[in-house]
Structure formats: C-alpha cells, structure tokens
Amino acid sequence: MTVGVKICGLTEEDGVDACLRFGADWIGLNFFTRSPRYVTATRAAELANRFVGRENRPGCVGLFVDPTNEEIAAVLDTVPVDILQLYTTAERAASIGQNFQREVWLSVPVSMAADLPVETKVERLVIESRAPKDADRPGGNGETLPWDVTQGWFSPCPWILAGGLNPDNVAEAILLSGAPAVDVSSGVECSPGIKDPEAVRRFIQIARSSGKR
C-alpha cells in the first residue's frame, strides 16, 4: 500500500516548494477566516501558480467551513481548486459537489467507533478528532483521536486520517488505524502557517515507508 499524503494550510512559497520537492499528493489551502492558516483567494492563486501546469502535480484542495455557494464560487473564479474539503453536513456536502462539479471531501469528527460513517455521497472522508469544546474552529487544533478506532471499519469510500499528526507519530498512526492516506498541517510547521521543509520531507518519507510494511 502506498500511503497518500496531504500537506494542508499552505501560506508561503517555501512550504509549497517543499511539498513539490518531496512529492506530496495534495496541497491544502485554507479559506476559513478564523484559521491562522487562512489565505485569501488572491494569495491562494499565487501559491497555486507554483504547481499548476506541472506534470504529475499535486491535487489542489480548498478547505471551507459551512460555506455559502457564493463564497465557494468566488474562490473558484480565481483559484484552480480540484477538490473541496468541507466542514458541513453530509447533505450539504453532497449538494455542493453536485453544484460545482468538484470532488468533495467531508471532514468527520470522531471520538468513538460509532461516529464512523457507514454510507456517504462524497468522494472521500477526512477522519479526525472532535474539536475541544472551547475551540473556535472545527479542525486544525492539533488533537489526535484513538487511532485504533478505525480498525474493523468498512469505509464507504476512500478516507484520510487527520488531526495531531507529525513526523514522530505518523508511522504509529498508520499502523494502528490502517489509514490509506494522512493529512498534516501544524505538525510540520515552525510557526502557525509556516511550514518547515525538513519536517515536510520527514513526514512524507516516513508515511510512505510505513505504507510499505
């Protein structure tokens, strides 16, 4: 199994270039204004221009929290987003996918096996820990979930493990969860929104190696 890797919350060129150099499968751009990794559509377009048009380029994932159609359309007018990653209801996510004709990933907060979906109308599920009660955003809080909660789960579509991952724990997370793909943001940063190229390299290398066991 080759484990897929998404590096999320890119805000600067060095981070994007590290993703390209070390072979990330997806690059995530965050359009949630309360996130420290928020980028405007104009800034996101500048970053995306560093890899759009490349052969075998990474997928461009746009992250939105309970967006209106108008908010999504404004981004898509400027940024070459391939995939919409959504924090919203399952029904709303399916509707957005149909409306914009884009692949949709639905973020699913989990604390126990009973929270894992058994059916879906989106292309991929992002499985992560529930946000703390006092959090001001639904994801990107650096919280991990019990990785073995997904053992024995028959996912209705491809899925990706997120939340609290870093180069030091990603191998164990993959081993215990059986995740076919992993998503990291703060775990490869030297400060909020600023990626550490060496941490990006290590994360991708370790995740890939873990999938070959």
Give a structural overview:
It is a single chain. With 213 residues, the protein is an alpha/beta fold. An 8-stranded parallel β-barrel has the order 1-2-3-4-5-6-7-8. A two-stranded antiparallel ribbon has the order 9-10. It has a single domain, classed as TIM Barrel, CATH 3.20.20.70. It has helices at residues 13-22, 41-48, 69-76, 90-100, 170-177, 197-210, and strands spanning 4-7, 26-30, 59-65, 83-87, 103-110, 124-129, 159-162, 181-184, 189-191, 194-195. The radius of gyration is 16 Å and the shape is globular. It has 6 helices and 10 strands.
Core attributes:
single chain; 213 residues; alpha/beta; TIM Barrel; two-stranded antiparallel sheet; 6 helices; 28% helix
Shape annotation: globular
Oligomerization: single chain
Order of helices and strands: EHEHEHEHEEEHEEEH
User: Main β-sheet: number of strands, strand sense, barrel status?
Assistant: 8 strands, parallel, barrel
* Total helical segments: 6
What is the total tally of β strands? 10
CATH superfamily: Aldolase class I
Low-pLDDT sequence parts: none
Cα-atom Rg, whole angstroms?
16 Å
Fraction in helix: 25-40%
Total domains: 1
β-strand amount: 15-25%
Distance between termini?
8 Å
Strand order in space, largest sheet: 1-2-3-4-5-6-7-8
Query: Which CATH architecture is right?
Result: Alpha-Beta Barrel
| CATH class term | Alpha Beta
- Label the structural class: alpha/beta
Q: Output mean pLDDT.
A: 92
What's the SSE blueprint?
Layout: E1 4-7, H1 13-22, E2 26-30, H2 41-48, E3 59-65, H3 69-76, E4 83-87, H4 90-100, E5 103-110, E6 124-129, E7 159-162, H5 170-177, E8 181-184, E9 189-191, E10 194-195, H6 197-210
Parallel strand pairs: 1-2, 1-8, 2-3, 3-4, 4-5, 5-6, 6-7, 7-8
Antiparallel strand pairs: 9-10
Helix pairs in contact: 1-6, 5-6
